[in-house]
Amino acid sequence: MLSEIDTRPFPAIPPAFNLAGHVLARAGQLDKPALVLFGPEGDETLSYAELLDLTQRTASGLLSRGLLPGDRILLRLGNSLAFPILYLGAIWAGLVPVPTSSALTRAEITRLAALVRPALVAAEPGIALPDHPAPVMTPDLAAWGHLPPADPHLGDPEREAYIVFTSGSSGSPMAVSHAHRAILARAGMFRHWEGLTGEDRLLHAGALNWTYTLGTGLLDPWTVGATALIPAAGTPATALPDLLARTKATIIAAAPGVYRQMLRADLPPLPCLRHGLSAGEALPVALRRLWRARTGTDLHEALGMSEVSTYLSGSPERPAPDGTTGYAQPGRHIAILDDAGRPVPHGTPGELAVSTDDPGLMRHYLGHPPPTGPWFRTGDAARMTEDGAVTHLGRKDDLLNAGGFRVSPAEIEAAFHDLPLTACAATQVEPAPGTTILALFYEAPCEIAETTLRECAEKTLARWKQPRHYQRLDAMPRTGTGKIVRKGLAARYRRPE
Questions:
Q1: What domains can you pick out in the chain, each with its CATH number?
Q2: CA dist., res. 151 & res. 60, Å (int)
């Protein structure tokens, strides 16, 4: 049997469509909170009626500046109400929002602006602006509230709806152009990852500009009529358990590192919590087991990327077996390919690929042609069991060579997740010219005895997979979204004295 799964047909795509109109299709019939932003100076609640009204009037405000459908708006905004309103309002008007991290420096955002060529920059005070000729506008939701509401701009579902940037973990960030149709591919996530219904209150621990937060934290709850809960910027992970209890959240979404930090706090009773969602990096088995033991709920992981969002996941209905990411979501056609582009047998490592017919797949990278051929190769290494469960082995170009064998760094890292460390990453280093060895870099409050590290490795790893060098770092090199930059570790290597 070969590692290929086809669960099409995909959702029907209307000939005239608007992503924001789809997300807010039921907003006019819902009498409940759509969004609660928690801030140091008090919470801010937005009802569905207010969300719809602000979106429509913001669309009018943007169009009143002479912008035309297809024009791009660079968003330089923090974790404020203006962020989701500008994002949805732009799409509603047929404009193209480009969310970016507020932490980017002037030099960094200047490079991205040159790639995107925005017609307008929407910015809040204190956030770095690009060196770019586009006019800069400070959002004024109150002033726009006096304008007449705009109708949604309907058009070809293939036209550009929004642009996001890849994390840049393998080089410079790429600008990813997504179509309005992309929202339809998320329908399979509601049941087959998130377990999301209109009765849920979903708390997302990430910043609003992160694609994980935008999709799972905002767009998905609003599409099904749930309530989105967003903590204030800078809320420490250790404060989230009390926030979960206070807000009666039924689902939490976060990256594994956040769950690890939450478990170091005193967890109050969480009778409303049904389960947690994990994405952004691999979920260690040990962390998932500890969360289950402490909370009585499960964590469900998803694998995705900026180019196609999530497409593999476990779910409350079909939990992923320990050590795997999960299963292809309904409507997906995926395969694990060899170097020649052929599906490999079950149990054989290869490269994950998604059909180029997938409605969630990007239109293209800016400055590059659209994907062609039957498969979009993700660059992720994986293997598939006979029942379709997929184990993610890391980025294909991150695979390490140990004793002539290819080994996944994720497999090495999993051996150490029971230890009191914040994060760890395996890579290769060169202790002498022409000589390479496996090394494990870890982030922890204090040094861990090397004997303890070696014992952990010996318990679960074959000898040739065990690191020969261990090194603590105060902080791992990370991207703006918190992903470890594995290629940046070798430069931190310190030869033993």
A1: 4-392 (3.40.50.12780), 399-492 (3.30.300.30)
A2: 9
